[in-house]
Design brief:
Number of domains: 3
Low-confidence stretches: none
CATH superfamily of the largest domain: Butyryl-CoA Dehydrogenase, subunit A, domain 3
Number of strands: 10
Bound molecules: flavin-adenine dinucleotide
Mean pLDDT: 97
Helix content: 40-55%
Shape: elongated
Number of helices: 11
Radius of gyration: 21 Å
CATH architecture of the largest domain: Up-down Bundle
Length: 359
């Protein structure tokens, strides 16, 4: 890692104590505005956004940053990842007028951006798309509703996927928050601070707001960076769970023995340690190959699934302490399910990776 990246990650470890303090509000469904402000003030938003708007640092730095945020506040890490993935996809395809208008503020975290593709009717494979964009008097009129969207009512800009009559492929448009409304809000199992819900779109935008006329190309970039990011979240949570469980079993005494002295507990510790190390290595491998979808998918598949197993084992050796909210494990267990679902479900990731293997 470069000296610059090293310093960035070291400073973030210090800052994460602040992030962790604010994270308690996540559980009450509070959007992590304070944490995002801290990350913006300390210039963490530009890390993985290409130059000239961002710092354009390597993907290894990005995953280290995400992992460190996730250990302290998973919901903050979730918003950070969805923002950085959307920012990269926007930067890859938007015209210069749009980029000049927004990219600097997006890169600095002054404007929060997200992508809204999912619709209740379409599901994981976008089987159906009902949001439409029609050209009327030189402007696009976009109408529809998106479901299960991160950051509703909190983000500044949304990248909306819509069907354009007679066009072969769905298009992606940039829409300002003033042109959308919040529909139904959902209570997630974990990641309770992400303001998750339905987005009702009723927007009239300039032709320039068309980002790309092929949503699959857009989703390729969004998904690759998003899935690298959610893998880093899962790894961060798993590492946090490991550290917490280790600390607990070393300190809890039953009579004259610590939990850590029991062989049954040690076997679980060894299994957890091995898996966490494997996750780290695979995450760095994916980061070093972040432009190759199959390598990102391998990491996503292994890490997001095994993070659940790691926390499950950490819960077994921490007894009622782990099951209660006196440790972070029960929260981690709920939070860590989200990375298996978004950008692409874990099952579809397996299907896509398999299709590259059998070509
Ligand atoms: C925390 C969170 C945040 C999210 N944020 C956003 C966001 O910001 N923007 C956004 O656009 N979306 C967002 N989503 C939506 C997410 O991308 C979808 O939940 C996901 O694509 C799955 O769609 P679905 O929930 O309708 O599942 P379904 O389509 O109902 O799928 C259910 C199950 O069936 C499987 N399945 C479906 N079709 C097939 C098939 N053809 N072959 C094999 N298996 C199949 C799936 O893999 C899954 O296991 C978010 C989701 C979560 C959980």
């Amino acid at each position: 890692m470069s000296e610059e990246s090293e310093i960035i990650v070291q400073n973030l470890i210090e800052l994460s104590k602040e992030l962790e303090k604010n994270a308690q509000k996540e559980e009450e469904g509070v959007f992590p505005r304070e944490n995002l402000k801290l990350l913006a003030e300390h210039e963490y938003f530009p890390v993985f956004i290409p130059k000239p708007y961002g710092m354009g640092l390597p993907a290894r730095t990005f995953v280290d940053v995400v992992k460190t945020i996730a250990k302290a506040s998973p919901s903050t890490a979730w918003i950070y990842v969805t923002h950085v993935a959307a920012a990269n996809a926007f930067n890859a395809f938007a015209n210069n007028t749009l980029k000049e208008k927004h990219m600097k503020d997006i890169a600095e975290g002054k404007l929060l951006i997200g992508a809204a593709g999912t619709e209740a009717v379409g599901g994981a494979i976008n089987a159906e798309l009902r949001t439409t964009a029609e050209l009327q008097n030189g402007k696009y009129v976009i109408k529809g509703s998106k479901s299960f969207i991160t950051g509703v009512g909190e983000l500044d800009l949304y990248l909306i996927i819509a069907k354009v009559p007679n066009a072969p492929k769905p298009h992606v448009f940039l829409v300002d928050k003033s042109q959308v409304k919040i529909g139904q809000k959902f209570t997630p199992m974990g990641m309770k601070g992400i303001s998750w819900g339905e987005l009702i779109v009723d927007a009239t935008v300039d032709k320039d707001n068309l980002v790309i006329d092929d949503s699959l190309k857009f989703l390729g970039v969004l998904g690759r960076i998003g899935m690298l990011g959610v893998s880093a979240i899962s790894y961060g949570i798993a590492e946090g769970a490991f550290e917490e469980a280790l600390n607990h079993v070393k300190n809890r005494k039953l009579g004259n023995n610590t939990l850590a002295s029991f062989e049954g507990v040690q076997i679980y510790l060894a299994e957890i340690a091995a898996k966490v190390e494997a996750m780290k290595q695979l995450l760095y491998h994916a980061a070093d190959n972040s432009d190759k979808m199959p390598e990102v998918l391998k990491a996503r598949i292994f890490i997001t699934e095994n993070a659940i197993d790691v926390i499950d084992k950490a819960l077994r050796i921490t007894g009622a302490h782990g099951y209660s909210n006196s440790l972070k494990l029960e929260k981690y267990y709920r939070d860590v399910r989200a990375p298996m679902l978004h950008f692409q479900t874990l099952e579809l990731s397996k299907k896509v990776l398999a299709s590259t293997l059998i070509q």
